[in-house]
Amino acid sequence: MNLPVIIKFVIDLLAVLLLALGIKGLSKVKSARDANRLAAFAMSLSVVGLLSYYLGTSGIAIQSWIWIIIGSIIGSLFGAILAKKVPMTSMPETVALFNGCGGMSSLLVALGVAIFPIPSGQENFDFFKSLINEVSISVSIFVGAITFTGSIVAMAKLQGWLSTPGWTQSKVRHFVNIVFAVASLIAFFDLINGNTSSIWLLVIVSSLLGIGVTLPIGGADMPVVISLLNSYSGIAAAAAGFVVDSQLLIVAGAMVGAAGLILTQVMCKGMNRSLVSVLFGGSLSTQSTASSGSGEYTNITSCSVEECALTLEVANKVIIVPGYGLAVAQAQHTLREVTKKLEQNGIEVVYAIHPVAGRMPGHMNVLLAEADVPYEQLKEMDVVNPDFPATDVVLVLGANDVVNPQAKNDSSSPLYGMPVLDVQEARTVFVIKRGMSAGYSGIKNDLFDLPNTSMVFGDAKKVLNDLIGELKDLGVGEK
Amino acid sequence: MSFISLLWVLLLGSLLGLELIGKVPPTLHTPLMSGANAISGITMLAALTLIVKAEGNVPLLIIGSVSLGFALFNVVGGFFVTDRMLAMFSRKPSNKK
């Protein structure tokens, strides 16, 4: 072993260690931010390791440097700009876009190697080795293409650029996807047999397969799909690692692939859906969207913050339903102050956490934990649902679809079957909301029309601040 | 590296991933997904290798460069976005105890 090889080995080892520590550190609130930076550092370290290895062995041509710099600057610049500019609310689609580009990168590497085989000087032709090479190229292309088109479709659907076409809800889609899958299998074997031109067939059919599988899936299930595609992009990276013979790529890719699978499972569990039903069950929002989705509200009651405070004052049990709107308004600390006052007055306060509150699992728990809400007050949906009939007041803050009674009552509703919080069972429901806009699913919320529901319009943070003032005036929470 | 040892690397890497994530509380899954996504942009190393080994083959250089751009878009954007999310989660200085 000569020096550059040893240096690269040490750096690679260090990078793997740091990446693993980074993923592990992301599991604790306290260390998460540092861990993320650690992982970023490990990634840059791996680049330094690779470049110094080539500098020390074969050298890097000027021409190569130019193309490296062009690619790096353009990619990093766009990535950084998008990451800074994108609103917090569209996080799922942003992750989807990034993820798709990772898949595209693996695909291009494999394609490049397949079309222009890298001249390998020292080794002589080895059948076994060339077979492995072809298999890893095919896998990299197949998984990379599915990741790319799947992620782009997921992003477009979340952004609302793409709706769910009617035909994708019929059984035909399974047939179409099977055709794509079989065609990619044929292209795969054809490629291994040495027919290089079938690589284009593989690219096209696996891209179509990615579209065909993702298109029928509804917006509410998208986070699960993105998580799964994230896992795929790890697999694609590992396959690319086989293509260019890099252990570091294989380890990192495998870690991400395994991590993505676990995450996907957890998300499915949280939404009470199985992965199979997400992938093959079709969209929640089927054709009926038109009938029940765009209906007009007929019986909206709106009330002032003062009325809300008066009702809260005489309550015995209050349940808070926080949603994404709360997170966007950064109102969790203000909310905590309100609940402190209520508690001091002997009112029982509980937070009802829907599994996908905040659109992704765990989002809400973190926000509330940071605002010093005691962990015992955070109740999971199944635990809290039987409590609603005995509850005096429910405060819905920035949540919408997860409290829509349609999901239980209206079998024609696109939301039907989704687990929801039964807030309408409570005596009084206050919905704090900026306006009458629809929720994430774009579906009308029947809750708002119910006689025991009152809307308090305004920004969550402002309303809560006003509420603190009103409660103070009423003497709530004064000792 | 022989193919067999690469397979070992794959196996051990997968087990490591399962083990690492298995211990993460559900509360941090969103930033974790985003962070892991950024790490999957490690294919930038493959793209770099491609460019270095292209030896003046211009189409290959271009493919490698585009691939590198996509990968870095994923990596840089992914880490920045994760950082932004985690910043949103983290305590404000005034609330620190």
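qc> The mean pLDDT of chain B is 82.
qc> done
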